[in-house]
Amino acid sequence: MISRPLSDAEKVFLGEIPLFAALGKDRLAHLVASCRVETVKRGSHLFRAADRAEYFYVLLSGQLRLVRTSSQGAETVMHFLTAPGAFAEAVTLAGRPYPVDCEVMADGAVVAIPRAAYLKILQEFPEVAGEVMAGLLEWERFFLDEIYRLRHTSPLQRIAAFLIDYQDHAIAHEQDETARDYPEKRLIASRIGITPETFSRLLRRLEQMNAIETGATLRIRDRAVLEELARFS
Amino acid sequence: MTDDFHRICEILCRTPYFGAWPQNVIGELAGFCQWKRFAADTPVFNAGAPATSLYYIVNGHVEQSYTDGDGTAGVVDLIESGQIFGEYALSRDQRYVMSVKTVEPTTVIEIDGPAFARFLAQDIERALSMMSVITQRLCNMLGQIQDLKCHSAAKRLGIFLLADAVPVKDGHETALAIEKGVLARKLGMKPETLSRAFRKLTEIGVTQQAHGRIMHIADIHKLVDWCGLGEDEMTNGEDHDLKTVI
């Protein structure tokens, strides 16, 4: 992992994230002095579950996946991080160990923010903590949505919704064509809580409906069909 | 000072969230709290409404329903005594993102949202305590997501029963404190799926007693194994609290 100070553009970007915008210009400049940009390579781990969380991160580029491994070794993909933004701030600020492994799916860069430096600012200016809590509640909302989908939607609905959401997310963050490619099929299956066998069967069904094309990479052929399925299947 | 004020102080002192705070701070907090009782099956708040309060459950159970982008609602969790809900009073848009209703007569301490936000902003230790509450919730949700993805309905029921199992002379027992319909919603399954899950568990030595109010587990290690848990997950560490994971 190669480490360097933040560029001016990266400092500006950091200042646009609510967790940092709330600090104000001077405090942010102070914090940035103790932050580093780390380049990360595909296949490496940024952190492992149970590691002491001394840093939280901002993804600048690349793609990461968060994975939980059961005591019997079964891996579950909990989330794909593909768009710039902060992550791991909840456990880090609460002084807990990371609950997941963070593995790099595509080369990129992250800003590492030291827990101690951020907490020091919070201690001096506790009014900033409200913004941190609001950020944590955004994560809670994301998890609620996940739980709702797992409990109340069919596997076909989940696949359709995932394919649409992933594409929308990539377009919204102006990612290039390669970055818009869907992750491996087995990882998508794990992410949306479907066995690989069921996932393959349902992909074939979607292909027969002309909604997608499979092959080396997945492609959406008829988005309207997927949108309909995501709502009512 | 009213009776309610003293009662609220007493309860807050005993909670894991605020118990470590000095008496005068608890008193300050209690100053913007109210004691409230709700009958069974009563809405506490609805999704989209302004989030003006948080709630600490003194006793009873409430059910949280989440509404997706298309307006369809579904139960996502059952919250019991000793837990806080309504934390969206601290969010940016200060609107509840879910609906909450009681499933049985429930007593709560209602905490005024804006006053609580100001109270937390005065002292980082207070804010960190609340962040810790939210982080614990996030970790539990992460566990719940993993569980929903990886375990069948019968295994989820098995894990739920393991969480409260106590040793008895011929095995272990778990008392069911909630009705089976409520349990089905808590575990994210239909009542008929829950019935099938109970039948499946009889093959692993789990039988119903006292008209289904007590579940008897003949061999807890066999059930742990069948549920795909390691023995270490049966410990009561923070991250392995089976009940909160479910």
TrEMBL record, chain A:
Record's keyword annotation contains Transcription? yes
Provide the Gene Ontology terms for cellular component: cytosol
The HTH crp-type domain covers which part of the protein?
153-224
A molecular-function term among this protein's GO annotations = DNA binding
* Protein name per its UniProtKB record: Crp/Fnr family transcriptional regulator
Q: CDD domains, alphabetically?
A: CAP_ED
Boundaries of every Cyclic nucleotide-binding domain copy: 19-139
Q: What keywords appear on the UniProt entry?
A: DNA-binding, Transcription, Transcription regulation
What the entry lists under SUPFAM superfamilies is as follows: cAMP-binding domain-like (SSF51206), Winged helix' DNA-binding domain (SSF46785)
Gene3D superfamilies xref list: Jelly Rolls, Winged helix-like DNA-binding domain superfamily/Winged helix DNA-binding domain
Task: Identify the species of origin.
Answer: Thalassospira profundimaris
TrEMBL record, chain B:
Report keywords, A-Z.
DNA-binding, Transcription, Transcription regulation
Which InterPro entries is this protein grouped with?
cNMP-bd_dom, cNMP-bd_dom_sf, Env_Response_Regulators, HTH_CRP, RmlC-like_jellyroll, WH-like_DNA-bd_sf, WH_DNA-bd_sf
Write down the SMART domains for this protein, in alphabetical order.
Answer: cNMP
The record's Pfam families line, in alphabetical order, gives: cNMP_binding, HTH_Crp_2
Listed CDD domains? CAP_ED
| GO annotation, cellular component aspect | cytosol
Can you say what this protein is called? Cyclic nucleotide-binding domain-containing protein
